[in-house]
Structures are given as C-alpha cells and as structure tokens.
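$ run holo --ligand "nicotinamide-adenine-dinucleotide" --emit tokens
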Amino acid sequence: MNEPLQIAVVGCGYWGPNLIRNFRSHSDCVVKTVCDLNEERLNHMKGLYPEINTTLDYMDIINDDGIGAVTVATPVDLHYDLAKKCLLAGKHVFVEKPMTSSAVHSKELVEIAEQGRLTLMVGHTFIYSAPVRRIKEIVDSGELGEIYYISSRRLNLGLFQRDINVTWDLAPHDISIILFLFGRPPYSVNCQGKAHINPGIEDVTNLTLNFDNGGFATIHSSWLDPNKIREMIIVGSKKMLVYDDTEPLEKIKIYDKRVEAPPHYDDFAGFTYSYHYGDMYAPYIQQTEPLKVETRHFLDSIASGEEPITSGRDGHHVVQILEAASRSLANDGGAVIIDG
Ligand SMILES: NC(=O)c1ccc[n+]([C@@H]2O[C@H](COP(=O)([O-])OP(=O)(O)OC[C@H]3O[C@@H](n4cnc5c(N)ncnc54)[C@H](O)[C@@H]3O)[C@@H](O)[C@H]2O)c1
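-- output --
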C-alpha cells in the first residue's frame, strides 16, 4: 500500500481551516504542516490538531522534501509567488481562487506545472457542489433548449476587502460556473461599477460576458446590498432554471415557460407571441460538502495524473476575464476582447 501523501496548507485565516478539515477526512493524505504569519491562528490550529506542525515561514514547507502537495489559501497577492516556488520544488499545488492577480502569472504557473508534470488545481469550489453538477447535467441534456442567457447575482452587506474589488472577490464563483455551463471562455467582456466606501476599490459591479456561440451572461456583484442573494437564472429556448443557493432544500427550480414568435405573419396585426406557462418542479439534490468533493478530486488528480476539472488552465481563463473586467471598468464599461 502507498504511503499517504503529505500535504501542507499555507494560510489559516477564514478559508484555510475548511481545507485542512476536509483534507484530514481523506485517509490517503496527511496534513503535515500549516503555515501562517499570524501566530494566534497557528496556535488555534495546533489546539484543534495537536499532531500538525506549524510554521511562520512557508520556506520550511518548500524545503521539506517529504511534502508532496501544497494548498495556498492566502490573500491573492501571494498566490503566484508561493505557487511558483512550490511547483519549482516539484510539489503539486492547489491554489485558492482567484488563481493569481495577473493573467501573465497564471499562464506562467500553467506552463511550469505542465513542464514538471505536476497537478495544478484552482479552488473553484462551486464546480464541486451538487446543485451546479445537477444544473450542468440538465443543461447538457438539452432540457432547457438553446441557452439564451445566464443572469447571476451575488450580493450581500460586506465582507469588504482591502486588496481587491468586488468583482475579483465574488465574481470568480459566477464566472467559473458560467464557463463550466457554456463549456468555453467568452470572447469579450464589459464591466461597469462604482467605489462608494473605499476610493478605487469598487464595491458594486455589473459584468457582462459575450460568447462566440451567441451566449450571453451578466454578473451583478455587490458588498453593498441589504440582502444576501446568491441567484443564477438560466433562460433557455424551451425552459428556464432558477438556482437559489440560499434556499436550504429546493435550490434548483425548473420552469416550463417559454415564449415563441410566430413562424410567419402577413401583416403586423397578425403578429402574436405565443407564451407558454407550464409546471415548475424542483429536482431532489443529495447534499454533499463541496470542499470534501473538491479535496478528494485534487488527491485523485495527483494519483491519476489527469487534468483536474478546475485546472490551472481554467483558473487562468477566470483571471483573464477578471483582468479584462478591470480594464473595462477603467474605460467606463467599454468592451475588452479576451486575449487568445
Ligand atoms: N473557494 C471559496 O469558496 C473561497 C471562500 C473564501 C475564500 N477563498 C479564498 O481563499 C483565500 C484566503 O481567503 P480568506 O478569506 O481565508 O483570507 P484571510 O485573510 O481570512 O486569511 C488569509 C491568511 O493568510 C495568511 N497569510 C498572509 N500572508 C501570508 C504569508 N506570507 N505566509 C503565510 N500566511 C500568510 C494571513 O495571516 C491570514 O491568516 C483567498 O484567495 C480567497 O479568495 C475561497
């Protein structure tokens, strides 16, 4: 039997502990070392898991040849530097979203991982959630017909970030889901928004993605909204789907609604739309913790050598879109073509 893979986690703030807990639930890996600049966070982790090594210096992890994989759960500014050092040291890397703060950097990480035949996976967690998996099956089955557009809203009061705007903070989730559903990156984006609280850091934005198959998606992100809203609407030529992630049970509802223009008419008086109103149903979804599925997938990808579902390449596409969104924001919403 193979020895369990030794892994390390850098960053034990809000999100890192969730990753540690889930990696610890898999018997084919051990969380050997966790790193943070904040000693209090390390003491907290040591209190929870006394057998784990702690360090303030991530170089202790890079220099530990026993550690085969590293999870990066720090603020985005550190992702590139740390992931690059890990890959160059021959370690597999799981990096949180957004993968990096520049597309030049995310592309470089993909290349280094490919050259080293190492697994590089990005934490686009929603792709591992049961509702999104189910929506993908429904879309691919053709039940909704041709997808006309997707409209997504991710709104809340806070949590304000100091280093990135609301698009970089919240929209990676929507972008990754939309790319997963359309199966391709967009060719251009437009983004408008405003900074009300911290000058230069937009707290509300509207991002539009344009796809070469005619698909179209809008993403409204806000830290300045009275309600917590996590909603995605998919409008197809046959049916419409509403995904409300705040619903405890019926997260997905499928509406048998559509509108058809008449195939032909002789004069304008003869032009009548046909509105179809049918039933609504909410498919049963078995709830599983997405992070458990995601961490399992990382370990399986390392073992098989196959590209993860949320690979470095997918993470790079998301960063390209975020970067294009920032350029569009600076240009009052003008269209920005996505490179490549
Ligand atoms: N996939 C998801 O659903 C999801 C959810 C939340 C956050 N995230 C991502 O996780 C990452 C971390 O977010 P967070 O909310 O936990 O942030 P956080 O600020 O709560 O935690 C980050 C931690 O990193 C530590 N850190 C900073 N620089 C470091 C360094 N040089 N060496 C070691 N540790 C260092 C900080 O001390 C802090 O404890 C971000 O990329 C974020 O986008 C993902």
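-- notes --
Residues 164 and 201 are 7 Å apart (CA to CA).
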